[in-house]
């Protein structure tokens, strides 16, 4: 028996202890972000034993297809490249998109998981379309619609070119990106629009080193998403009212919300709200974020629904900049302490240890 116990102990000691990267908080010092990311979001080769089984299988033997407007690639359009991926796809397909503007309305349906859209960092391609809510309905007006799981985009510009709503034209809202699949990551992407720029619809999502611009509700929906080191650029709205988020949580048991960490809020329009109570129980937290003077001193809006004041979760933690002063905030703002902020400043917020991988190198 003693010999057996000794053998068992030797086996256990030989097995490396795996510490989930979900448990390591995002550092308070922004200069440490890249090291933190490299240490906690390892490449596939170092993570295959801990990833979702479907994802681990999909990453073996990844395929690259190329889109070039001049015909020198496998396809001339992104749409044709997506159509070439079989329904029920089980392997990672990297769509390398050459420089240029692709005037297409692109949809990646739920039967095509494991798709990556990739552009060269120094020659970012643009996916562009001008669809509006009047034409397609709000959520279906997006220039890029992603319904499938395990999607990745790196170094892509996504824009909706419809003119900004003026408060008079019916159905003028125009989405640039709708992300409705689970476990999606965006690296170094620029997402441009006015009202309703991103429909962060549902699922776990990660945005890093991105640029997002808009006027009203330019990040909205029921996703559970972490935005890291991303610039939020507020553009002037023709009718004056500007607000960054319209998170759509409604039930107390719903597990969704937005967490912004080490982001930067820029623009020239004064009086911008961090978020509004579009739905009954929105959950939005800003941490370590530099807020420009454009932020309205009250911070948040219940959008004329005072009955929602006790149900919203609008949190702030150790933000900086002229717009981060909390003295004038509305009474329902939650000024978080270290323990309260902890769930929102790590990859655990999006269960990243099971699916998040660094951007591809193509």
Automatic annotation (TrEMBL):
Matches recorded under SUPFAM superfamilies: Pectin lyase-like
One record GO biological process = cell wall modification
EC number(s) in its UniProt entry? 3.1.1.11
Q: What Gene3D superfamilies does the database record attribute to this sequence?
A: Single-stranded right-handed beta-helix, Pectin lyase-like (2.160.20.10)
Q: Check the record and name the PROSITE patterns matching this protein.
A: PECTINESTERASE_2
Q: State whether keyword Ribosomal protein applies.
A: no
Major enzyme class: hydrolase
Q: Which Pfam families match?
A: Pectinesterase
The reaction(s) catalysed by this protein are: [(1->4)-alpha-D-galacturonosyl methyl ester](n) + n H2O = [(1->4)-alpha-D-galacturonosyl](n) + n methanol + n H(+)
Q: Which family does it belong to?
A: Belongs to the pectinesterase family.
Q: Would you tell me the protein name for this molecule?
A: Pectinesterase
